[in-house]
Amino acid sequence: MSNWPKGVSDGLILPCSFCGEKTVFDYTVNDAVWNLVIPKKHRRDVTCLPCFDRLAADKGIATVDCLKLVQFVGVNKTIGLQSIWSHDLARDHDGPGYQPDKNSPLGPPPGDE
User: Fold this and answer.
1) Which domain holds residue 50?
2) Is residue 2 part of a domain?
3) Beta strand 69-74 with 25-28: parallel, antiparallel or unpaired?
4) How many structural domains compose the chain?
5) Which pLDDT tens digit goes with each residue over 1-46?
6) Verdict on whether the full-model pTM lies above 0.85
7) For tag attachment on the chain, is the N or C end more exposed, with fewer CB atoms within 10 Å?
C-alpha cells in the first residue's frame, strides 16, 4: 500500500467494513499501528476513523498519537485537516489511558524513555 495515490475524491466512498457507514474522513497511520489495531481479515478493507479509534482504544493505543494525516472527503474534493490540539479524558485526568509496553512500535510509555 506504500504507493497508494494521494486522496482525491471522485464521489466513490466505500462503507466501513465494521459499522457499514460511509466514511467522510480518510486518515493515515503507519503500517505497524494498522497491523496492531486492525484484524488481519479486515486490513485491506475500509475502516472508518470512529471504528479505528474504538479498536485502537480497545488495545490501549491512543489514536491521536498514531494519526499521520486526516482528510475530509467531499464530492470531487479532498481537504487536508491539521491537528491543533487533542484531549484524552483518560490521560488528561490521571485515568487508565494509553500505556504502550516497552516493545510497542509506538515507543515506550511516557517517562520510560
Assistant:
1) 25-82
2) no
3) antiparallel
4) 1
5) 455 455 545 556 789 999 999 888 999 999 999 999 999 999 999 9
6) no
7) C
- Residue 56 in domain: yes
What are the start-end ranges of the E strands in 1-113?
Answer: 25-28, 69-74, 77-81
| Cell numbers found for residue 34 | 494498522
> Has residue 16 been placed in a domain?
no
Say how far residue 87 (Cα) sits from the centre of its chain.
Answer: 15
Cell of residue 64, nine digits: 491521536
Please answer whether residues 38 and 52 qualify as being in contact, where contact means their C-beta atoms are separated by less than 8 angstroms.
yes
Q: Which of 76, 102, 104, 103 is nearest to 112 (CA)?
A: 102
The C-alpha angle 45, 47, 50, rounded to 5 degrees, equals: 175
> How many whole angstroms separate alpha carbon 2 and alpha carbon 5?
9
- Is 66 part of a structural domain of the chain? yes
